[in-house]
What we know:
It is a single chain. By secondary structure, the chain is an alpha+beta fold. The chain has helices at 111-114, 217-247, 249-256, 264-271, 277-284, 301-310, and strands at residues 3-5, 15-22, 25-31, 43-50, 56-57, 64-66, 70-72, 87-96, 99-100, 104-110, 116-117, 121-128, 131-137, 146-156, 162-167, 171-174, 182-193, 202-203, 209-212. The strands form five sheets. Strands 1, 4, 5, 6, 8, 9 and 10 form a seven-stranded antiparallel sheet that branches. The longest helix has 31 residues, at 217-247. It is rod-shaped and about 145 Å long.
Amino acid sequence: xxxxxxxxxxxxAPQHLKLHLYNNEQILSWEPSPPSNDTRPVVYQxxxxxxxxxxxxxxxxxxxxxxxxxxxxxGGGRSKGFxxxxxxxxxxxxKQGERTSNWVTLTWFQRYxxxxxxxxxNILVIPGKxxxxxxxxxxxxVTKEAAFEYRVHYWEKTGAPQVRGPFKESSIVLSNLKPxxxxxxxxxxxxxxxxxxxxxxGRSLSNVSCxxxxxxxxxxxxxxxxxxxxxxxxxxLTGACFFLFxxxxxxxxxxxxxxxxxxxxxxxxxxxxxxxxxEALDKDHSPKDDAWDSVSxxxxxxxxxxxxxxx
Length: 311
């Protein structure tokens, strides 16, 4: 931030004042005075004032006669520092023995207006049925003169980014998401002033985290119905095939029976019709192969005469 020098002093003044405001952090830093021939240590004094007030030394933190070139107004978290709604001015000077430099004054700032807001803390993402539920804490505590609004930047892992919000709650449900898909998200916190605070402080996004959604009610029902329907269909088809087999068993056997075979001699004849087929059959037919039965009739003359008498 810009600064201005006061009247000339024997000791060179500090240079390049910088104010760091991030969440609750409130730190003023500067570059040391240029070295001189005096070997005594150089110390620095920091003072502040509000609009319409006078300059004051810090009492809750030690920023008077310090050798370091920075002043932490929160004392590393032990103090609340400056209020977020008041305009504050700061000034620094160097001191070496009895010599002092001119005061270097920082222009007015309002903490809630100039702070850089970090991402929410303690982010927890719970996958649900076609949804992602996020729970988190605000970046830092604020007074009633300001409040946080949150936005969720999310995208399917291979899709385009989308934004939902603003939300005032620290629990957000991203619904109507596709089941069994991986979504990545970042959460952004924005500080909104009320009343006298009419500015938009800087803000940043949380780290990217990716999560897979679970099956919704419709998908779960489909997962159950698809195998049940497939099994039922196979059962019906099996029953229908068995019924048709019983009804048309004769035709099925006729369709699937082996066709009649042609004797080898006829196949040879069909290949070469000029071949003496009948002679070949006679040649193959040997009288020795014929089986004959012999019958002998034996008669007696006495029995023949007896037969004639009876007639």
